[in-house]
Amino acid sequence: MTDTKKTTRQVNVTSKTSVSVLFAGDSGDGMQLTGTQFANTVATHGTELNTFPNFPSEIRAPAGTIAGVSGFQLQFSSKPVYTPGARFDVMVAMNSAALKANLKNLHRGGIIIAGTEGFDEKNLKLAGYPEGANPLHDGSLDNYIVFPVPILQLTREALKESGLSSKEVDRCKNMFVLGLLYWLYTLPLEGTMETLYAKFQKNVWMAEANIRAMKAGYFFGDETELFANLGRFDISPQKQHGIYRRVTGNEACAIALTAASKKAGLELFLGSYPITPATEILQTLAKKKKYGVKTFQAEDEIAGIVSSIGAAYGGALAATNTSGPGLALKTEALGLAVILEIPLVIINVQRGGPSTGLPTKPEQSDLFMALYGRHGEAPLPVIAACSPVDCFYTTYEAARIAVEHMTPVICLSDGYLALSSEPWKVESPDNLAAITPRFQPAREAGDPPYLPYKRDERQVRSWAIPGTRGLEHRIGGLEKQHETGNVSHDPENHELMTKLRAEKIARIADSIPLQSIDNGPLKGDLLVLGWGSTYGAIKTAVEQAIEKGYSVAHAHLRYIYPFPKNLGEILGNYKQVMIPELNNGQLVHIIRDTFLIAPESYTKVQGVPFNEMEILTKITDLLKEL
Amino acid sequence: MTDNDTTIKTLPVLTAKDFASDQEPKWCPGCGDHSVLQQLKQVLPELGVAPENIVFVSGIGCSSRLPYYLATYGVHGIHGRALPMATGLKVSRPDLSVWVGTGDGDALSIGGNHFIHTLRRNPDLNVILFNNEIYGLTKGQYSPTSKIGLRTVTSPSGVIDHPFNTAALTIGSGGTFFARAFDRDGKFLRSILQRAALHRGTSLVEIYQNCPIFNNAAFEAFATLDSKADNTIYVEQDKPLVFGKNKNRGIMLDGFTPVVVDLDKDEFSTSDLWIHNEADINKASILARFADEESLPRPFGVFYAEERVTYEDALAAQIKDAQKNGCWTLEELLKGENSYEIK
Question: How far is A282 from chain B (nearest CA, A)?
Fold first, then answer.
């Protein structure tokens, strides 16, 4: 770092509380990598952080077009942040399509760093600008601060003696941008340098070329007059002392399953089939063999869940992960898990639907399917994570409920949480709840016969796993006689078993925490009731509304079935309840149905998360009406 | 998790009775399934595995009721999915002896995808495929092994779907063991079930099983005394392919084409005949195709047996390798590999 300091001219450094940055370019421009590196540096620096990647579902959509634009947004701040920012303050646009696709979300007066080569005639045409129009020159960006930088040309100059092919040189242009942003926000280069050396262990020259490009970007900030008026910025780190790691929601789910298996003393088995945006859970767990984790990439979604049912029958902590279309395929097997009454965790990372829908985009439209998407009376617990870090705690809780209540549990995440990341203060094993499997002990000669469906006071049956002497028994998808588990078609017995299975799930409400108010008064004009990934936007909006003096509170549901016992009471403490959801209104039905109240539904089905401004506007509009 | 006290040494001598559950079989009188259950109950005590370490997994169909009638652990799953359920169980519990009861509809129609993928992965399962060439439980619709022209309630003008050849499908899917047996030949069926139990890997045993209600006498040509000898051939390792009432007919290979020869005529002797070799996948593939050729006798016995690493062993080896420097702790898991300290 000393060498960069030496050459840094005296440029004004302004302190700021928080900044939202978007790296946008063609999907081949390496924007995800650039954003991830920037996020890692910011996190290690100790600032609060929230990231959100946004990319097309095609691996390589046509270069230069709007469809091919890939973005990585992050907000970093001296105070806690819960969203990547409603609008960004700074946009890196590697080409004209990236600018065109994202300009509407840039603050007025925001900064645009534009790679001028991406604004040549060909790129402008591909982005759909009228002939002869160039936003960098035609005055259409007068409301913004625009820095046109010949990124490609400067990268080529920096690497002209690197020995790299011209294609390889051009690929380093994202590192130039990264260096320039590090300069702009007075951030260190060391973290990325270490990463590059580690990544290119066998091709040190490649690491060095990337670093040279990054330093060229950094020095460019210094040397050019371009940024003289703007100066540099500093977001001072405020995080508490401690050990942190940055996790995405999908990584957090994978870590939670492994942690739960360790804590419960069970082996973890994941039967899974790759599906966007849930695949990283399988990928992360496939790398956890040193913890004894067994992953099984099945031939299809059905085999994914059914293999997990087999493993659960054998005594493993079994899980499967999927997204909407996969959950649809798993529904018959879910019914089997319900009637077998065995533990199973199903992580559903929701995406836009129906059918293939919007595979890479978040949506909360699988709530009905999670609750009701099985034939027959087949209730099971449904819980939902609200942030990337919360994916850990919610998945862990799903495993606890599954094992201790002998039931499949659906844990809902979505494409936003799955790929977003935030810093996580490393958790101590002692803080994790105990998970206690109730294995049925071996039966000795003279003991009464084993009754597989005998229940305890919570209506939970015991887990009798093969290999245990004296417990040989047969179970299956056919209706079972109460207690003995023998096949039974008796009408009264079927009704009894249906009610017992339902009661078992309903009674889980006895062992989960009461609903709390996240922020705001315990009684008031408006309660914003959320679930899942809308947490950050609602939290930020409610904070702002409270600052403005509105009587508004925020409660966020983790437990959707069964609900916390005090939810009805809480809902009654406010004149009005508003439920924002990334669907066409699903939780609102369930709340209306359960509590006979008329909440205000606020929905968005665009494949993008809510931003805090939208929620804030809705809050203020509603309270004006009151 | 398992009871490790149970070893072969301490086992009391068990009999077929010890493997009978308290449930009365609900198959129709005269159904071939009764015979298969009988033979299994006789074979299981001879395997030296305690009943608590045996699991029967099944899908849906008449054959899939099998687990209810055996005094071992058992799971009766959903239609077509017995194989992935058994795979998940075996992968997580390699110590168990895992058996699958399935049928031609369950395994080859709704479970067809699982069938081919299980075979290529080769987990150590013993799969008993009851092939009656019909859907019995749903009352007589044609199945993926029904013969062309078979008239059923869903094919009133005759079946037009070309049937699956189970043996060819098994070998083509990368299966490591295929044998065919017959419900009416109990002794032979027992010997095949024993071979299947001993094979490490997925053992696929196709049993021709008569459905007296919906597809009676589908295998009559291989059963009746006067036609059986000429229509069947029982293959044995290292033995020439000989069949016929007086063991006077044999199979010779003319290039890749099997030809029936008459040993009574001086032209050929047994030394000219095809010698059965379970390890030869090419010969097994030709043998599998006998069923498509009316002039050839129907083979029974072990067509193919290959030693190949099982899925669960390969996975266990990878885990062992990942843990060669010790198992990792929960602390290490939570901290991760890219944590950083804020001072």
Answer: 15
**pLDDT by 10s per residue, chain B, length 343:** 444 544 445 557 899 999 999 999 999 999 999 999 999 999 999 999 999 999 999 999 999 999 999 999 999 999 999 999 999 999 999 999 999 999 999 999 999 999 999 999 999 999 999 999 999 999 999 999 999 999 999 999 999 999 999 999 999 999 999 999 999 999 999 999 999 999 999 999 999 999 999 999 999 999 888 889 999 999 999 999 999 999 999 999 999 999 999 999 878 999 999 999 999 999 999 999 999 999 999 999 999 999 999 999 999 999 999 999 888 899 999 999 889 998 8
Fold of A246-431: Rossmann fold (3.40.50)
Which tokens go with A297? 């990439």
**Two tokens at B307?**
């030693």
Q: Give the bridge partners for A383, in sequence order.
A: A411, A559
- Whether A388 has its CB under 8 Å from any CB of chain B: the answer is no
Report the run of H or E that residue A335 belongs to, with start and end. helix A324-340
> CA–CA separation, A204 vs A196, rounded Å?
9
Q: Within an 8 Å CB–CB cutoff, is residue A433 touching chain B?
A: no
Of B54, B78, B96, the CB nearest to A336: B78
- pLDDT mean over A443-455: 95
Contacts of A310 in chain B (CB under 8 A): 57, 75, 84-90, 92
Contact assignment for A243 to B114 by CB distance below 8 Å: no
Q: Is the peptide bond before A562 cis (omega within 30 degrees of 0)?
A: yes
User: Is domain A2-235 in CATH 3.40.920.10, yes or no?
Assistant: yes
- How far apart (Å, rounded) are the C-alpha atoms in residues A66 and A125? 11
B6 neighbourhood in chain A, CB within 8 Å: 467, 469
Please state whether the peptide bond connecting residue A441 to the residue before it is cis, i.e. omega within 30 degrees of 0: no
pLDDT for position B343: 83
Sort B252 into a burial class: Cβ within 10 Å, 0-12 / 13-18 / 19+.
Answer: middle
The three-state secondary structure class of B231 is helix
Which residue from A minimizes the CA distance to B311? A296
Domains of chain B: 16-218+309-317 (3.40.50.970)
- Tokens standing for residue A255: 């870590």
B167/B171 Cα distance (integer angstroms): 6
Q: Indicate if the pLDDT at residue A229 is higher than 90.
A: no
Contact A619, A545 (CB under 8 A): yes
Domain boundaries, chain A: 2-235, 246-431, 438-494, 524-625
Whether A246-431 shares its CATH topology with A524-625 is answered yes
Closest residue to A313, CB basis, from B89, B116, B322: B89
Instruction: Give the count of Cβ contacts less than 8 A between chain A and B.
Output: 213
Q: Rounded mean pLDDT of chain B?
A: 94
A51 phi/psi in degrees, rounded to 5: -125, 155
The dihedrals phi and psi of A141, each to the nearest 5 degrees, come to -110, 25
Q: Which of A237, A243, A289 sits opposite B318 (nearest CB)?
A: A289
3-state secondary structure of A624: helix
List the single residue in B60, B88, B96 with the smallest CB-CB distance to A466.
B96
Q: Is residue B299 reached through a cis peptide bond, with omega within 30 degrees of 0 on the bond before it? A: no
Structure tokens at B229: 């000898």
Give the span between the Cα atoms of B61 and A616, in whole angstroms.
58
What are the helix and strand counts (H, E) for chain B? 10, 14
Please, which residues have CB within 8 angstroms of residue A326's CB and are 6 or more apart in sequence?
A273, A275, A278, A301, A304, A348
Q: Cβ–Cβ of B323/A292 closer than 8 Å?
A: yes
| pLDDT for residue B224 | 87
Q: Do B319 and A292 meet the contact criterion of CB atoms below 8 Å apart? A: yes
Q: For the domain bounded by A524-625, which CATH number is listed?
A: 3.40.50.920
Beta sheet of B257-262, edge-to-edge order: B242-243, B249-254, B257-262
